[in-house]
Amino acid sequence: MLKYDLVVIGGGPAGMAAALKARECGVQKIIILERAATLGGILEQCIHTGFGLHYFGEELSGPEYAYRFIKELEKTDIEVKVDTMVTDILPGNVIVATNNKDGVMQIHTTAIILAMGCRERPRGALDMPGSRASGIMTAGTAQKYVNIDGYMPGKKIVILGSGDIGLIMARRMTLEGAKVEMVCELMPYSGGLTRNIVQCLDDMGIPLKLSCTVIKTHGIERLEGVTIANVDERRRPIPGTEQYVECDTLLLSVGLIPENELTRMAGIIIDPVTNGAIVDEYRQTSRPGIFACGNVLQVHDLVDYVTEESQIAGEGAAKYILSKGKSKSRNGKDIHVKAENGVRYVVPQNINRSTDKDVKIYFRVADVYKDKRVVVTCGDEVLYNKKKKKLAPGEMENVTIKLDDIAKLSSNEITVKLEA
């Protein structure tokens, strides 16, 4: 039986940042459990630059960003177990994990930070007729083939979905000599960052077809082509708009899913919109002593925001541990934060009235909006009101509510919404 003050599940950018922050705040015995062979998570295969602009103030590649946190970890006494799979979280914050060296382990801990990241939505989640021909894969799988394994998955590419991974792979495949025929997006707007649309599509001369989807794949052994079609406002293919596109590879960039199987097994309440845990301002979940951060909580577009959020979770876990679980109430029942009128979701969903800090509320909008005001209210009181030139679902937004304002709130509900 092993005992730790804090167990961090996941050794990607979220898990490393959370563990380092908890150690900085005075937590002594910390261990990171990572199922992969190395730390760094998905950043290891993201060899393009664009990371660290907010956090480090300079442009880094994914491996460079991860390496900075790995080096900081090596300076501490934080333990790390890689090739280790967590299989369950039992009552009393007991973790069951296994690896080839130690076998099955039971780890008793005061607090847990969930930082398992997310995975790509596969073809099986799509209504796409056609055979199981080779050449159909997620954009992240193709990224691993090219950047880690040194394999080219194909030469003539169609990409379905304009998420950031899909956009980045459109550029990557082009630079490697492949012909990217087009990127098809079901929605009337792109799901990626504006900078990625410009740098990965516009600069490469790759067309982006909005309100368009793949309705059929062709080929038996190997993909030979796809049929695309425009869709109406209800996302249904429009008869007569079908077009056959010859290709040998179809990359799917159709959304990310938080890896929350462990979260659900632990009985933690899940937000139906984010598919992550419902948390308070310190990222504590509905189960005392268990915190969540990074893409397992909400899918981020920038790793810099992952780091920022994970440090909040690390600080929250430290407060919980150092007070032996008797810190100020963090049960998520004081002030509820809700999304309305164009705002799709908010994180955190709860703020404790006894909080000791300003609270930054992250949110995403449900559509592309121009010249709208982001308004935060509590009853008739306006806490925040600022006009934004453009808001898009692919870019996370945030507002900060000051501690003094939280202490004076007259209601137990805050609303984040858009107004003209």
Short description:
With 420 residues, the chain is of the alpha/beta class.
- The first-to-last residue Cα distance is 59 Å
Spatial shape: globular
Can you say what the CATH homologous superfamily of the largest domain is? Answer: FAD/NAD(P)-binding domain
Largest sheet: 7 strands, mixed
Q: Give the proportion of residues in helices.
A: 10-25%
* Overall CATH class of the largest domain: Alpha Beta
Number of helices: 8
**What is the beta-strand fraction?**
25-35%
CATH architecture of the largest domain: 3-Layer(bba) Sandwich
Low-confidence stretches: 328-332
Oligomer: single chain
**Rounded average pLDDT:** 94
User: How many strand units?
Assistant: 27
Structurally, how many domains make up the residues? 3
Task: Give short descriptive properties of this protein.
single chain; 420 residues; alpha/beta; FAD/NAD(P)-binding domain; seven-stranded mixed beta sheet; five-stranded parallel beta sheet; 8 helices; globular
Describe the model.
- This protein is α/β, with parallel strands linked by helices and 420 residues long.
- It folds into three domains: 1-119 and 256-331, FAD/NAD(P)-binding domain (3-Layer(bba) Sandwich), CATH 3.50.50.60; 122-254, FAD/NAD(P)-binding domain, CATH 3.50.50.60; 332-420.
- The chain is 21% helix and 34% strand.
- The protein has eight helices and 27 strands.
- It has helices at 13-24, 62-74, 139-149, 164-175, 194-202, 261-265, 303-322, 403-407; strands at 2-9, 30-33, 49-51, 60-61, 79-81, 85-90, 94-99, 103-114, 118-120, 136-138, 156-160, 179-185, 208-210, 212-218, 225-230, 243-246, 249-252, 256-258, 290-292, 335-339, 343-347, 350-351, 359-365, 369-378, 381-391, 397-401, 413-419.
- The strands form seven sheets. Strands 1, 2, 5, 6, 7, 8 and 19 form a seven-stranded mixed beta sheet that branches. Strands 10-17-11-12-13 form a five-stranded parallel beta sheet.
- Strand 11 (156-160), helix 4 and strand 12 (179-185) form a beta-alpha-beta unit.
- Helix 3 crosses helix 4.
- The protein starts with a strand and ends with a strand.
- Mean pLDDT is 94; it is low at 328-332.
